[in-house]
Amino acid sequence: MKGFKKLTPLSEAIHSLLKLLTHRIRDVEVVEISDAPGRVCGENVYAPIDSPAYDRSAVDGYAVIAEDTFGAAPTNPIELKLIGRIDAGYNSLKLPALKPGHAIEIMTGAAIPPGSNAVVPAEHAKKRGEIVEVYSQVHPYQNISRRGEDYSRGELVLEKGQIVKPWHIGALASLGLHELKVVRKARVAILSTGDELIELGQPLKPGKIYNSTKPMLKALLSVYGAEPIDLGLVGDDLDLIKKKVSEGLDHADAIIVTGGTSIGERDLVPEAISDLSDFMIHGLAIRPGKPTGFAISSGKPIFMLSGFPVAALIGFRVLVIPALEKMLGCRFDPPPRIRGRLTRRIASPPGIRTYARVRIYREDDEILVEPLRVTGSGILSTLTRGNGLLVIPENVEGYDEGEEVEVEILQPIHAGGEYQG
Amino acid sequence: MKGFKKLTPLSEAIHSLLKLLTHRIRDVEVVEISDAPGRVCGENVYAPIDSPAYDRSAVDGYAVIAEDTFGAAPTNPIELKLIGRIDAGYNSLKLPALKPGHAIEIMTGAAIPPGSNAVVPAEHAKKRGEIVEVYSQVHPYQNISRRGEDYSRGELVLEKGQIVKPWHIGALASLGLHELKVVRKARVAILSTGDELIELGQPLKPGKIYNSTKPMLKALLSVYGAEPIDLGLVGDDLDLIKKKVSEGLDHADAIIVTGGTSIGERDLVPEAISDLSDFMIHGLAIRPGKPTGFAISSGKPIFMLSGFPVAALIGFRVLVIPALEKMLGCRFDPPPRIRGRLTRRIASPPGIRTYARVRIYREDDEILVEPLRVTGSGILSTLTRGNGLLVIPENVEGYDEGEEVEVEILQPIHAGGEYQG
Fold first, then answer.
1. Are B261 and B291 in contact, with CB atoms under 8 Å apart?
2. A200 HSE (CA, 13 A, CB side)
3. Which of A336, A257, A332, A334 is nearest to A300 (CA)?
4. What percent of chain A has pLDDT over 90?
5. CB-based contacts of B150, cutoff 8 Å, min separation 6
6. Would A216 be classed as within a structural domain?
7. What is the pLDDT of residue B419?
8. β-strand partners of B337
9. Which of helix, strand or coil describes residue A164?
10. Sign of the torsion formed by the C-alpha atoms of A231, A236, A240 and A241
11. Assigned domain for A110 exists
């Protein structure tokens, strides 16, 4: 049986991965902006118009000539003649130019009339029939949103590679844009290997286990905006693994092969993949997930992840996510994190990066972090009982009870409770 | 024209909202687990079987009777007779009981054979033909994942109200479960009001602006797993607003009305909604978003959000998100946050909670937070130029230059760059 002669430090593995991964997803597709959130923007978007398209009032009040109000004060109101009213949406640009000594009532958002250069807020003035008394002076362009103040024509609004957010949709819509080019989704093929696996929906037989890693990986891929392609399940058969991976490489941007990393005397999956690739790292200095690795075939990545779901999740996190970012030219949101105090000591072997599952909870206004006891990398319940992940770097041998650590939040600390606006 | 006589503190508004919001979404629907991520779990899920379903080996090695290895050491190897090999997936439960002095080669994940109670790891033993030399002793159940160790039959796996994550899919699949009851999506109707608005796709006319708030809110609702229902766009017309909101209440779990919060002498939207509801708060002590409010009609919430997209985003965040959590019985993930040093002073009026848009960037290993200059709540570019939000509480009048603050990350700090595994 083979052990791992050398475990590659994670940073070294990621460095090689990002250097050798030359495949890029450059195809774009045009979608309605309502379908764009979460997609990777595929073009630099420049404002086609000024926004606002005209100088508009930022308050409810009175459009005036600023100079007419100079010296106005509660003790020295200045009277202006009220000549009309502009509701929001009214085309005030067709009005004749405002004359000195005149004012027009105006609503927030309405275009200010020609000749006017400031707005007196309603609360600083009083209407008396056809007269408005102004109690405070305004300087030119006070209370006016200038044309192009939000976006001026030709300005960069959204950059290629940004993940589209709801407020980007707002920005695009404000400029009249209802479509956007987005990068097509990454296609990631998944091949499960292992004679012990059976697929969901079939009855469980002695010695067999349900393939839980594949549905989890499919869900992860969806969460990261990728399209999973199912290459099925093969037994511990070298030629079949090679054939499937080879087929997958024709259609997918990346391949994930799970399980079968050390079967008997032979490491079947690494052996199969080695034949198909130009470069391979197998065995990472991480825990769980030691039998994790990747290979590069014509610039595309082939990931070898553990068949155990928790180790596969960590492998996905450390290798697949950065590879997706590189291929798509984007950067995903960082996970939420929180600082808390360890309820007991946790150890990590030197030179190994440990991803410890923890339970984060609140007690008397303090955030506490309890490391969960685990026996193997197959123990999914540490992720469903716990709600956090503590990363212990290679150069740290652990943390003491009471020490403050930063943990990643996998699940909100309270299910329910008061919202922290 | 009406100002706001009294601005309600946000905490008071949220308190009333959560107290009076009695409408609950209790309907569930059954989905394939692949469609479940991001949905709200609609049932307590208990393990239908033990997982693992049998005692299995946690390592590649040799299944033995632990007592046979007592005293084994590199200087004192113990010889056992090798009687066979169990590959992963093999039904070893049908084997005859292991006899004292015997060992069976076994792969990780395989069921241990009857009679055996421990596994010697491959690296602590050496195979010599039909003999295996054991170099270290194992205690009973060492290197064995016990039956039910991950989940024992009847144990709670996933709780009603949890947002389904990829690792939950893994847990359900490991137990052979391929379907899940999830809470139906919240249906939130959106009505835009304002004579100045035109919908996307139409040519822009003088005095008009594109309705950018609605597409943004629809995107936000989708991100939070809710289903937007479009009630269209109405002008500043009291009766029409009432009719539309009333219709919306028949089908939706909540209504959002944007704009029209203070049109001329009358606050049309609050007036319309007041007639339809039992309780109303209008005018919040937040910035931007002062003309934000909500009403309750037969236990359902009606939100009044600004017609300006940035203010509407803040209103959504402070009122709609907690209401969705209450109606669905769930809790959404907290946003990612980071601490950084302010590049310049930022002020906030006393008694007002300010949501300042900031640019977060890295300089020489330090995180810097630059408050963006804004002129109005309609300025979307502060969200697309910036990448963060700084919340200044009511009892703080601002932060000084150089002060350390915690900010919410709206967009990753670098587009590209090295992944922080």
1. yes
2. 19
3. A257
4. 83
5. A378, A379, A380, A381, B51, B52, B174
6. yes
7. 36
8. B408
9. coil
10. positive
11. yes
Mean pLDDT of A378-401: 92
List, in sequence order, the alpha helices (H) in B129-208: 166-174
Q: Which of residues 93-152 of A touch B (CB under 8 A)?
A: 93-94, 107-111, 122-123, 145, 149-151
Q: Based on the domain organization, do A282 and A302 belong to the same domain?
A: yes
Q: Taking CA atoms, what residue in A is nearest to B3?
A: A123
Q: List the CATH number of the domain containing B262.
A: 3.40.980.10
Q: Total domain count for chain A? A: 4
pLDDT at res. A375: 62
Nearest CA in chain B to A175: B210
Residue B189 near residue B256 (C-beta atoms within 8 A): yes
Kindly report the CA angle at B384 between B378 and B385, in degrees rounded to 5?
A: 105
For residue A180, the model assigns a pLDDT of 98
Q: What are phi and psi of A166, to 5 degrees?
A: -55, -40
Domain region containing A42? 29-51+152-183
Phi-psi region for residue A355, left (φ > 0), alpha (ψ -120 to 50) or beta? beta
CATH code of A166's domain:
3.90.105.10
Examine the domain organization and report whether B88 and B45 are in the same domain.
Answer: no
Instruction: Mention every residue, 6+ apart, whose C-beta is less than 8 A from residue B106.
Output: B57, B60, B61, B62, B63, B85, B86, B92, B112, B113, B119
CA–CA separation, A294 vs A305, rounded Å?
8
Q: Are residues B176 and B43 in the same domain?
A: yes
- Rounded CA-CA distance A79/A128 in Å is 10
Q: Is residue B377 part of a domain?
A: yes
B322-342 pLDDT, tens digit each = 999 999 999 999 999 999 999
Same domain (yes/no): A392, A381? yes
Q: What's the half-sphere exposure (Cβ side, CA atoms, 13 Å) at A345?
A: 6
Restricting to B residues 164-203, those with a Cβ less than 8 Å away from any Cβ of A are 165-176, 178, 194-197, 200-201
Residues A258 and A381 in one domain: no
Is the separation of the CB atoms in B203 and B196 below 8 Å?
Answer: no
- Give me the CATH number covering residue A63: 2.170.190.11
H/E stretch holding B40: none
Does any domain span residue A397? Answer: yes
Chain B from 5 to 24: CB within 8 A of any A CB? 10-11, 14, 18
We report the CATH number of the domain holding residue B344 as 2.40.340.10
Are residue A164 and residue A133 in the same domain, yes or no? no
Mean pLDDT of A42-50: 97
Joined together, the tokens standing for residue B200 give: 């996307």
Which helix H or strand E contains B298, and what residues bound it? Answer: none
C-alpha distances out from residue B179 to A41, A201, B27, B156, Å: 34, 10, 16, 16
Nearest CA in chain A to B155: A381
> A188-210 burial by CB neighbour count: b if 16+ within 10 A, else e?
bbbbbbbbbbbebeeeeeebbbb
A200 lies in the same domain as A276: yes
pLDDT digits (tens, 9 = 90+) for B208-255: 999 999 999 999 999 999 999 999 999 888 999 999 999 999 999 999
Q: Are B169 and B256 in the same domain?
A: no
pLDDT for the residue numbered A119:
97
Of B300, B328, B356, the position where a domain reaches its end is: B328
Cβ neighbors of B266 (< 8 A, separation 6 or more) are B2, B238
Phi, psi of B93, rounded to the nearest 5 degrees: -70, -20
Among the three residues B133, B164, B183, which one is the final residue of a domain in this structure?
A: B183
- Token pair for B15: 């308190």
Angstrom distances, CA of residue A20 to CA of A14, A184, A282: 10, 22, 15
Answer whether A411 sits within 8 Å of B178, measured CB to CB. Answer: no
| pLDDT 10s digits, A284-308 | 999 999 889 999 999 999 999 999 9
Provide the whole-model pTM: 0.93
